[in-house]
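Design job #97: recover the sequence.
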């Protein structure tokens, strides 16, 4: 058993504590050991769960501990939110890096066109294929999976980041054309 497994049991008694037990392993173990200490049980999820189920006084002890540790719990929840935000920022940076690395390469455009062609072929097979009745479920499954890939490929080309990048490139070219050329020193 893991600390995440007793989240619902703890959550019914001390709701603010439950998300911390479901968080990163280090935080869950820390909070779990503090709960075990407050209840006077062994430092295991099984012992904590057994105490909460068998002893009504244990539930009261958990609520008292949660009240005393409210600030620490609040900080733990803030840390969980910060970790989620950092993960989201990392994903966004990865996407932006991929676009900047491949902005002038032919492969993203080719992959998008191939995916669109494949999607069109599967759709044609779904509606007009000769043995449609025997393979309808397979084709519907493929359409569902291909649609996700096509949506991702199209999003790559029409997202606001791509448009912003293209606009910046065009503005740079226009600026180069409108700037006067400096006179030569020999004139």
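Job complete. Output follows.
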């Amino acid at each position: 058993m893991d600390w995440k497994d007793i989240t619902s049991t703890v959550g019914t008694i001390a709701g603010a504590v439950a998300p911390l037990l479901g968080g990163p392993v280090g935080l869950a173990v820390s909070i779990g050991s503090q709960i075990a200490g407050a209840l006077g049980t062994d430092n295991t999820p099984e012992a904590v769960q057994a105490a909460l189920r068998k002893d009504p006084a244990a539930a009261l002890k958990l609520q008292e501990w949660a009240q005393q540790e409210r600030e620490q719990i609040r900080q733990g929840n803030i840390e969980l939110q910060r970790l989620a935000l950092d993960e989201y920022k990392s994903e966004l940076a990865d996407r932006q890096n991929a676009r900047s690395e491949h902005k002038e390469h032919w492969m993203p455009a080719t992959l998008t066109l191939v995916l669109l062609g494949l999607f069109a072929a599967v759709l044609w097979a779904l509606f007009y294929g000769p043995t449609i009745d025997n393979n309808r479920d397979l084709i519907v499954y493929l359409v569902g999976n291909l649609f996700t890939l096509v949506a991702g490929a199209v999003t790559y080309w029409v997202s606001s980041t791509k448009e912003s990048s293209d606009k910046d490139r065009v503005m740079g070219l226009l600026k180069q054309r409108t700037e006067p050329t400096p006179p030569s020193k020999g004139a």
